[in-house]
Automatic annotation (TrEMBL):
Keyword Hydrolase assigned: no
GO annotation terms (biological process): cytochrome complex assembly
Annotated organism of origin: Luteimonas gilva
Record-given protein name: Heme ABC exporter ATP-binding protein CcmA
PROSITE patterns the UniProt entry points to: ABC_TRANSPORTER_1, ABC_TRANSPORTER_2
Gene3D superfamilies named among the record's database cross-references: P-loop containing nucleotide triphosphate hydrolases
Transmembrane annotation, as ranges: none
Single GO MF descriptor: ATP binding
Alphabetic keyword roster: ATP-binding, Cytochrome c-type biogenesis, Membrane, Nucleotide-binding, Translocase, Transport
Domain ABC transporter: 12-215
Amino acid sequence: MTDTPIPPPPLLAARGLSFARNEEAVFGPLDFAVDAGEALLVRGDNGAGKTTLLRVLAGLLRAERGEVDIDGHRAGHHDRSRAIAYLGHLPALKADLTALENLRFLCGLQGQRSRQTLEGAMNIVGLSGYEDALSRQLSAGQKKRLSLARLWLSPAPLWLLDEPYANLDLDGIHLVNRMISAHLREGGAALVTTHGAYAAPPVRTRELVLGGGDA
Ligand SMILES: Nc1ncnc2c1ncn2[C@@H]1O[C@H](COP(=O)(O)OP(=O)(O)OP(=O)(O)O)[C@@H](O)[C@H]1O
């Protein structure tokens, strides 16, 4: 008799997850799961709650109700900081450090994916030559690219990407999709918020629509 292998738990699972501000519902209750190797596109109009959902999942805001599991275990603070890389609307960069110093600082805080160098990540995101530029001197798109380099260097399997295409030119949009595809091929997963105009990571993708029911 052969044992049927038990499938691994989803990388991320949310059950009955809701958030309210001043007793007014922002989203939920939501039920969804993301497996390793999958992307979840979080769509919705302006104000639908996409950013709020990612911030709740990252542990930056407290849910009103519901549960979040990572790798089949209730996600505590430590699990979230180990498993999650969060790319917010605004680049989390130190203005008076150079591009390379920013990456070094963030890798010191959050760890570094094995076999990746800071210079290699700068090259992947198209910022070779900007290593010594102060981050405050970078354009909005270059700052986004530097944040993408930090994301690429993170060892966390679960990417929470809030509008990763914002401020990027067409080449940058393709870069984001290539990065997501490569990350998923390596067994990672990604939640990606978008208004829907550009996002098409060419990978296994589920969709969650806020403000209009789950799809
Ligand atoms: N700091 C805050 N204080 C009070 N209300 C907030 C705050 N941040 C967001 N909101 C409200 O919460 C709701 C959800 O906002 P959120 O930023 O999550 O939406 P979103 O779907 O990401 O929107 P967008 O597509 O415009 O970025 C909105 O009604 C917004 O006005």
